[in-house]
Amino acid sequence: MFLSGIVQLITPQNSAAREVSLPSRSPPTVKSPVNHATRSGISTLTTLTTAALVAVALVTAWHVSWMWDARLATEGSGSSHQSGATSALPRQERRDDHRSGDRHGPVFPIEIRHPQGDLGILVSHPHDETAVRVACATCHATRQPDLSNRATADLTEFHQMTVVDHGSISCLSCHHPEDYGAFRLADGQQLAYRDVMQLCAQCHSQQKRDYDHGVHGGMIGHWDRQFGPQYKHNCIDCHAPHQPKFPAMQATFKPQDRFLAPPRNSRPHSPGH
Amino acid sequence: MKPADFNLGDSNLFGGNPDHPVRSYPKFILWGIGEATDGSLLFYLWMLVLTGIALVGANAWAVQVHDGMIVTNMTDHVSWGLYIANFTFMVGVAAGGVMMVIPAYLYHDKKMHDVVILGEILAIAAIVMCLLFVTVDLGRPERFWHLIPGIGRFNWPLSMLTWDVIVLNGYLLLNLHICGYLMYMRFLGCKPNPRWYVPFVMVSIFWAISIHTVTAFLYCGLGGRPFWNTALLAPRFLASAFVAGPALILILFEVLRVTANLKVDDGPIRVLLSIVRVTVLVNLLMVVSEVFTEFYTGGSHTASARYLFFGLHGHRALVPWIWTAVVLNVVAAAMFLLPVVITNHYVRVAACTMALVGAWIEKGMGLVVPGFIPSTLHEIVEYSPSLIEWKISAGIWALGLMILTVLTKLAIVVFQRPLAQHESEMSSH
Amino acid sequence: MTNPRRSEENDQVGSEATEGRSRSTQLPIVNQSGSSRRTALKIAGAALGLVAFGRAVAPMWSIPENISIAEFLQRHYKELTDEDKQEIFQRLASETKTRYGADVTIVDHRPIPGVKFAYAINLSKCNGNGKCMEACHRENNHHRGTNQSYIRVLEMTKGSLDMEHGTSTYDHPTPQPDKYYMPVQCQQCDNPPCVTVCPVEATWKEEDGIVVVDYNWCIGCRYCEAACPYHARRFNWEAVEIPAAEINPEQGYLSNRIRPQGTMEKCHFCLHRTRQGRLPACLEACPTGARVFGDINDPESSINYVLKNKRVFVLKEELGTRPSFFYFFD
Predict the structure, then answer these.
(1) What is the pLDDT of residues B250-271, one digit of tens each?
(2) pLDDT, tens only, B119-149
(3) Are residues A94 and A158 in the same domain?
(4) Are C259 and C281 in contact (CB under 8 A)?
(5) Same structural domain for residues A73 and A185?
(6) A230 - beta bridge partners?
(7) Which residues contact B399 (CB under 8 A, 6 or more apart)?
(8) A&B contacts, CB < 8 Å
(9) Which end of chain B offers a freer environment for a tag, N or C, measured as fewer CB atoms within 10 Å?
(10) CA neighbours closer than 13 Å in the CB half-sphere of residue C151
(11) Is residue A260 a part of any domain in this protein?
(12) pLDDT for C150-204, tens place per residue?
């Protein structure tokens, strides 16, 4: 699958997933175990003592969870968790945690594949026509930006053929005029290439919000991160930055049931038929 | 109940010795087998042909079990076909026999009483066919034991299919008992004890209604199939059953008149004809009201009806079937209204055959199959039975006819031999 | 009835009985045996018929080799002990080895306590590329001949939820401008019609909401297939054909093990994966990210985010099946 082999651990300060998942998970950490405890039969216990015990358990659970995340946050900068699926606690132990009703105990991270290398562009190799990736800085390090250029059509030397179909934004809405190896946020701040999601999120906050909740962009790995990590794409893995519309596809796998009629669209019928 | 009600001939003869029948019933059956397999050359030829067809069917079934249901033309879209269509029709025939039982036992129609055994025999043959049609429709027939309460897991009362298993087997047992008891008693020359059969007959009347109602519930309880999901289905099933059953019995009378020289009194024929005369019209009325509701309302729920009657998006495999059924039913209904149907054997047999074929199409290709077309996702996959399906169905029909022939023959032998004196007594009344 | 009458009856019964007995001895039971030639002919005919029947059903004689006694007598899943299961799983694995040449492990995955699964599909995102069908096909060891899968993707006409204006056999680049795409698979109903109608309880709903089939208990009557409003059930019309190299060896008894001929099967949310915390195969394969899966009991799950924040609907809600499968638009 297209996501396979993507194992790139996030760094704490840039982790889109972590930024959202940490604060949003903390309050329900207190609430949701009650649900699960309730479901697993503790609802029958109604005395104050039980409530107090539950409260203590919850606080402990929350604490453990916080500790665990904190530990990951500090360790995660290196490559020690690249094989996250097999790391950390043995599975049986995690299952036990799980079954105790604490669904928010230690969890594996959401691992987002960040863009690699330098910000660049694919150009055809002059000899064999193969695509070669050239860093923007190769040329732009020595050229002065012309802030009056708004579209590729305004350019006179390079990039004229680059088709940009991305709203009404201009090149320098995203590209940093002083450092072409980086992006420029709306407030003028410089942003590293690998943190491109933050750039997109400025306008596409709804998509970012969905993404942070696991509802945009897809994923592989585990739905329950107590069993293993989740791996996700970044924005520009699926959306070409200059033409972000998702490309058309051709379905290659069709059902071949017996006697199933040929495509009906070969003989279109009106909805009023 | 007044004892006199069940008193056919002389009131001196009542019941049987409780010891006697049990001990020699197997002997009676042995004798019956011998007697029922004696006959003319024509009889042997008839049985030989039926045996041949049944063997072809058995062979086809063996192929189907071995190769899988892929040898049928059923699909995930049309997952029930000719077998279940025949099953539904035969349940109707089995239930239709009750139209002889009701006049005979509830209205004390003496003439009908004389021939009511034929209705019960028909019910036995029809139910055996039903059970066989269900069996050949199973993907794993060797797991039938999962259906046996106690040994398997019987999803009763939730699954309507378990209800059907109960009512069909119950009806079979009821009729086996009634036929067996009456014939045995007549064989012994005893007057049957009403205690041992009248309650069963009464139960069987309600039971006959129930087998077809339950079979209709099998379909009309499915919310995902709008074509079946109508409260009118059970009444419609009953109405067409009360066409098909009596029609088949009327044909049987004619066959017996020619082959066995058995002259059935005009009385029962008139009663059955007047029943069919009404039920065929009631059935048509219900079909018309269904069709009206479907087409006047419109919408996507009528897709199956549109497909059935006029074809949908160029698919029209069932259109010839249903219009054939409509024509047959309407012509038969008209013929039943003519007085000539009573006097003229040919007209009567023609009308009955048309009504029978009409009911068969209406319930099978006209009801079971279009329920699946278009599919629940509105995909259109058409269905026409494969050769294997036709072979297996023909085999089951042949077996059913064999059972009917043998039992009818036995009944005639039994009822003619000791009855001679009763009949003379009765005619002197 | 009065007593005198009854005694009178009894007398009559007695006399009748003797009369009956005497008559029965006169009856032609004896006469029959008299025509011994005819009886012999009949017996010969019956024997001939039996032989012919044996020949007719000859294709079935190979079946006992395919179905072991252990399989024939196997109890319902819910009645099996752990030892029974181990024995059965080993038998099934060795059968797979014999028939398909693949080494597989069959496991009995049980629900995770407290979890109830739900699925949602973003119809604004799905572009009908069919990767989910393909992934299901491979993951679940489907019959190769028919491109079988538990998913059907319908190309629907914009402005209508009426599936009459949809087709699953489209063959052109997608998405088309006036179309949207709706994958349909088992909706894991909370009120599943298929479970209600099954005469032998071969299909049932588990605690985590997944409707499963015991492929070794199903009798293949296909009533569930008629009852399902979502065309979610599939029948094994023939023996599954699948090259050994393509067999997914990680198998669950109630999920993706190779199904026997003549039984029903259906989508089980990849329970051999999801009950181990993994995502379903169709979700992982989706290039558009249209699929969302999770625990509906967890208020923080993505599925609950969808339910709270999106315009969600279920298919054929009017039927009261209460699906655990949702569709939504952005």
Answers:
(1) 999 999 999 888 888 889 999 9
(2) 999 999 999 999 999 999 999 999 999 999 9
(3) no
(4) no
(5) no
(6) A110, A221
(7) B50, B54, B57, B128, B129, B132
(8) 26
(9) C
(10) 30
(11) no
(12) 999 999 999 999 898 889 999 999 999 999 999 999 999 999 999 999 999 999 9
Q: Are residues A111 and A232 in the same domain?
A: yes
Query: Would residue A269 count as lying in a domain?
Result: no
pLDDT average, residue stretch B147-169: 93
Residue C172 lies in a domain: yes
The pLDDT mean for chain B works out to: 89
Question: In this predicted structure, what is the pLDDT of residue C120?
Answer: 97
> In order of start, what are the domains of chain B with their CATH numbers?
21-420 (1.20.1630.10)
DSSP one-letter code for B315:
B
Instruction: Report yes or no: A158 and A234 within 8 Å, Cβ to Cβ.
Output: no
User: Which of chain C's residues have a Cβ under 8 Å away from the Cβ of A248?
Assistant: 127, 173-175
Domain membership of residue A48 as a residue range: 1-115+210-241
DSSP string, B116-178: HHHHHHHHHHHHHHHHHHHHHH-S-GGGGGGGSTTTS---TTT-HHHHHHHHHHHHHHHHHHH
Is residue A174 domain-shared with residue A234, that is, in the same domain?
no
What is d(CA A149, CA A133) in angstroms, rounded to the nearest whole number?
24
Residue matched to tokens 């906050």:
A205
Instruction: Summarize pLDDT for A100-155 with one digit per residue, the tens.
Output: 445 556 889 999 999 988 898 888 777 777 888 889 988 888 888 888 888 888 88
CB C286 within 8 A of CB C132: yes
Give the span between the Cα atoms of A111 and A7, in whole angstroms.
7
Domain range holding C256?
A: 130-268
Question: Is residue A5 very low, low, confident or very high in pLDDT (cuts 50, 70, 90)?
Answer: very low
- Residue, of A229 and B14, whose pLDDT is higher: A229
Residue A67: inside a domain = yes
Identify the bridge partners of residue A192 per DSSP, sorted by sequence position.
Answer: A182
Is there a domain that residue C171 lies in?
Answer: yes
Between chain A and chain C, how many beta carbons pairs sit less than 8 Å apart? Answer: 162
pLDDT at A215 over 50: yes
Band of the pLDDT at B23, cuts 50, 70, 90? low
Is B378's Cβ below 8 Å from some Cβ in A? Answer: no
Q: Identify which of A36, A217, A254 has the shortest CB distance to residue C289.
A: A217
pLDDT(A269) > 80: no
What is the predicted pLDDT for the residue at B310? 95
Q: Does residue A142 lie in a domain region?
A: yes
Q: In this model, does residue B216 exceed pLDDT 60? A: yes
User: Is residue A176 pLDDT above 70, yes or no?
Assistant: yes
Residue length of chain A: 273
Helices (H), B189-302: 194-220, 233-259, 266-297
SS3 string, C224-248, reads HHHHCCCCCEEECCCCCCCCHHHCC
Across residues B3-14, what is the average pLDDT? 35
Q: Is A238 helix (H, G, I), strand (E, B) or coil?
A: helix
Q: Does the CB of B5 have a partner CB in chain A at under 8 Å? A: no
Q: A204 with A218, same domain?
A: no
User: Does C243 contact chain B (CB < 8 Å)?
Assistant: no
- The Cα–Cα gap between A122 and A132 comes to 5
Percent of chain C with pLDDT over 70: 88
Do A76 and A186 sit in the same domain of this protein? no
Position C94 pLDDT exceeds 90: yes
Contacts with C11 from chain B: Cβ below 8 Å:
none
Return d(Cα C206, Cα C188) in angstroms, integer: 10
Put simply, the answer to whether A222 touches C278 (Cβ < 8 Å) is yes
- How many domains in chain A? 2
In this structure, what token pair is assigned to residue C151? 């998913």
For CA atoms A241, A243, A245, A247, give the dihedral sign.
negative
Residue of B nearest to A267 (CA): B313
Chains in contact with A, where contact means 3 or more Cβ–Cβ distances below 8 Å, are B, C
Count the Cβ atoms, other than its own, within 10 Å of residue B148. Answer: 12
